[in-house]
From TrEMBL:
Entry GO MF terms: cyclin-dependent protein serine/threonine kinase regulator activity
Signal peptide segment: none
Swiss-Prot/TrEMBL GO biological process terms: regulation of transcription by RNA polymerase II
InterPro entries associated with the record: Cyclin-like_dom, Cyclin-Q_first_cyclin_box, Cyclin-Q_second_cyclin_box, Cyclin/Ssn8, Cyclin_N
One Pfam family of this chain: Cyclin_N
Family listed: Belongs to the cyclin family. Cyclin-like FAM58 subfamily.
Name recorded for this polypeptide: Cyclin-Q
Keyword Ribonucleoprotein attributed: no
CDD domains recorded: CYCLIN_CCNM_CCNQ_rpt1, CYCLIN_CCNM_CCNQ_rpt2
Phylogenetic lineage: Eukaryota, Metazoa, Ecdysozoa, Arthropoda, Hexapoda
Length: 271
């Protein structure tokens, strides 16, 4: 390696402050509905903006986080199989939400999905009336649902990192002890990082268990938490207790991908 080139550790450290700042802002503005954050989705249809659109609509629909994660996974997988310019990406996003509700048994009524996505895309618009526009949009979502399912070869049930994250966090709670564990918001922050990572199609590039471990390790780095008893493990990294095949280089690569997710986040303005 060229001595002048920054190491992986240095690159991550340079991004760490930005991530901490983002997390601090998220604590203040976690509920997007209560803070009146307005994003004009009509001016852009890039992957990140569409992901934000799915997140916002999911919150408005009171969808379960796993339902939102499923919708985003469907969207990213579909985008990798098609030419995006040939599709109405907001229609695809609405359809992914509707389909995700079915997959995760999270009852999202098609009329609610239609009204929420329409109002979010066109701010201030009234609910759709039972007319030509309503039935046209409803039929478009049904047809898009069939298109997505066929494009993904009917493989629409995924193993999410969330279940691994829950398992690892429960193990960590026992590992740390209740008193020490309660000092740091490791669980809450790890889940926030994991959910936000679904803004990026890079969430498809790594095994779900490795993504969960990367989110936990990034959280430990942010808060400067040292995993107890590791001095007695003959230099075995803590994450190899859960996944023997995961290397330190791969773990930090995923951590960097998680942090890069925050880079394109647009500025938002309060009304």
């Amino acid at each position: 390696m060229n001595p002048s080139e920054p190491t992986c550790t240095e690159v991550l450290s340079s991004k760490m402050k930005d991530v901490i700042d983002v997390l601090a802002m998220q604590r203040e503005k976690r509920n997007i509905l209560q803070k009146s954050i307005t994003i004009d989705f009509t001016i852009s249809s890039d992957s990140f903006t569409i992901s934000r659109f799915i997140f916002e609509c999911g919150i408005k629909l009171d969808a379960h986080p796993l339902t939102v994660a499923t919708a985003l996974t469907l969207f990213h997988r579909f985008m990798r199989e098609v030419t995006p310019q040939t599709y109405d990406l907001y229609l695809i996003a609405a359809t992914c939400l509707y389909l995700a509700g079915k997959i995760k048994d999270d009852a999202l009524k098609i009329r609610d999905v239609m009204n929420v996505t329409s109002n979010t895309l066109h701010r201030g618009s009234p609910p759709l009336e039972l007319g030509d526009q309503y039935w046209s949009l409803r039929d478009a979502i049904i047809q898009a649902e069939l298109l997505i399912i066929r494009t993904l070869k009917f493989q629409v049930v995924f193993t999410h990192p969330h279940k691994y994250l829950l398992h690892y966090l429960r193990s960590f709670q026992a590992w740390f002890g209740e008193d020490e564990w309660s000092k740091y918001p490791v669980a809450k922050t790890s889940l926030a990082l994991l959910q936000d990572f679904h803004h990026s199609p890079a969430v498809l590039d790594y095994p779900p268990n490795c993504i969960a471990l990367a989110c936990i390790n990034l959280t430990l780095q942010i808060y400067g938490v040292v995993v107890p008893l590791m001095d007695e493990c003959d230099q075995l990294p803590w994450f190899n207790v859960f996944c023997k095949e995961l290397t330190r280089e791969k773990l930090w690569e995923i951590m960097e991908k998680v942090m890069i997710t925050y880079d394109p986040e647009p500025e938002t303005q309060d009304n």
